[in-house]
Every structure is written in C-alpha cells, then in structure tokens.
Specification:
Elements (H helix, E strand, L loop, with lengths): L1 H16 L4 H11 L5 H45 L29 H17 L6 H18 L5 H28 L4
Length: 189
C-alpha cells in the first residue's frame, strides 16, 4: 500500500512539475525564497502592532519565532528520520522532471517551507481575523503558492507538501491558542 501511495505521489509530482516552462522559472524561484516574504511579514507586523500594541506585538513575535523554529526543526527531524530522497536526488526521475532550483538537498519528507508558511498563515490569520475578515484566506492562498513552488522547482513531492501544510497548520493553531493564553495571562488586549 505504501509503495502504491509513493508511486501515485511520484506521478502527481511529475505532472505538476512538468506544467512549468522557462518563462515562469524566475517567478517561482523568487516565490520560494524566504527573503521574498519580508514585505508581507512587515505588513503583517504593522497590522499586528496596530491592533495589539507594543506588548501584544511582542507576544505575537515571540510566538511566531517559536512557530517557525518548531516547524523547521520538526521538518528536519522527519527528513532525517524518514530519509526519503528528494525527487531531484532520484536518478530515474532526472531525465523526466524539470529541476529549476539552485540546489537540491538530500531528503525532503516533509517540506519545511510548506510547514512554516502554512503555520504563519494559520497563526496570523486567526490572530487578525476579527479585524480583517478575508486575511486568513489570502494568507492560506499565499501559503499554498509557496508550497507549490517547491514542486515546481523539483525539490519536493506533493506528499511532502501536504504533510508539511497539515503539520504547519496544526502547529499554527496551537501557537495561536498559546498566544491567546499569554495575552490573557498578561492582560494584553
């Protein structure tokens, strides 16, 4: 059963990966860079500060740092624990896939990019939804685009992405609950 699932995962990967073309390669390279999200994070920080003030912003920033650290370290634990090679490391795929990334890591299950972007989307989307009704949906869309970029570039399978998004979303929800508790405990609105 696992072998069949991994075969389907490879087939879906090849289909999605081969949808790309050279005209879009630069765009997807930029999307996947962690630094390209800085303007979005700066805007979200502004919204957080506007709604929560200095103390609330500090709590949310500490929680966001905890979230990103947790998703990243958990992804690394899984990558080396499961030891599933990235598609760009599989010899039988190299002739049929498009490899667009700058480099190719060793293992890929699960995607830290997908986990951290989904975690941040859930955490900040829930934190700000009271004032910005559509923001959670926009952030979820952004997280999905970042996650897809990893397939486009040839460094993750869809199962790596889906697992990362589910785990990241769960951690984002837990950290949201933690930040609510901390804001209540320290009487921060």
């Amino acid at each position: 059963m696992i072998d069949q699932l991994l075969q389907y995962d490879t087939e879906v990967f090849l289909y999605l990966n081969q949808l790309g073309n050279t005209h879009w390669d630069g765009f997807w390279r930029i999307v996947t860079l962690k630094w390209s999200s800085i303007p979005l994070y700066a805007f979200l920080l502004f919204l957080v500060y506007k709604r929560f003030g200095p103390k609330g912003t500090l709590i949310i920033m500490v929680c966001a740092a905890l979230l990103v650290t947790a998703t990243d370290q958990l992804a690394n634990l899984f990558k080396y624990g499961v030891a599933r090679p990235r598609p760009c490391q599989v010899e039988s795929l190299k002739d049929t896939m498009r490899f667009v990334a700058e480099r190719c890591g060793r293992y890929g299950y699960f995607s830290a990019h997908a986990a951290s972007s989904m975690g941040v989307a859930v955490f900040l989307g829930l934190s700000l939804q009271k004032w910005y009704r559509y923001l959670p949906f926009l952030l979820l869309f952004w997280a999905a685009v970042v996650a897809y970029s990893r397939i486009y570039l040839g460094v993750h399978y869809p199962l790596d992405i889906l697992t990362g998004m589910v785990i990241g979303g769960g951690i984002g929800w837990l950290v949201y609950r933690l930040q609510n508790y901390l804001r209540f405990r320290f009487r921060v609105s």
